[in-house]
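Page header: ASSEMBLY MODEL / two components / 223 residues total.
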Amino acid sequence: GQSLEQPSEVTAVEGAIVQINCTYQTSGFYGLSWYQQHDGGAPTFLSYNALDGLEETGRFSSFLSRSDSYGYLLLQELQMKDSASYFCAVRNGGSQGNLIFGKGTKLSVKP
Amino acid sequence: GAGVSQSPSNKVTEKGKDVELRCDPISGHTALYWYRQSLGQGLEFLIYFQGNSAPDKSGLPSDRFSAERTGGSVSTLTIQRTQQEDSAVYLCASSFPTGGYTFGSGTRLTVV
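Prediction written out in full:
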């Protein structure tokens, strides 16, 4: 089956850089995704990595190493509004299968 | 529609009653997913549909839970004889078959 591990909580200050790690175990690999969820809100899609390397989207970047079954989400120039939970996710049972999510990392950004 | 629509947004029900939760996906999205999330917890997979068929029902917690999708569009999640442990936010998402998910705002279910 699929399983993912990510830290439960991370705290950082405004303007800093933070990295949220995710390690996974899968029976087949069809990419690593990241979602953001603010308290009381719905998860929203942030990024997707199918191949090794870094994908950059504005202040957010996501990295994947398939050989290490590892990825991370990098948030730069942190803002208060980045305080949220961040979930990594992998596909279950094929490229069209459902996503299995990690338990989430709660990021708190302090002034 | 422009986004994924879920109704009701909140539902309070008495233990033992049946409830129906509705999800209206983004037009054209063939895949539809149901998850539930307890307070401060992760996303627990329940069931997904490709078109009107459900390839994977393994996440349904018990036989009190069922779901259907008609016309490749709207889906209904039904919980029979609700229990207090069913209290959670039920989230629906839709996507193209291999695309990123768009989630609805969820239905907050409280069983009293």
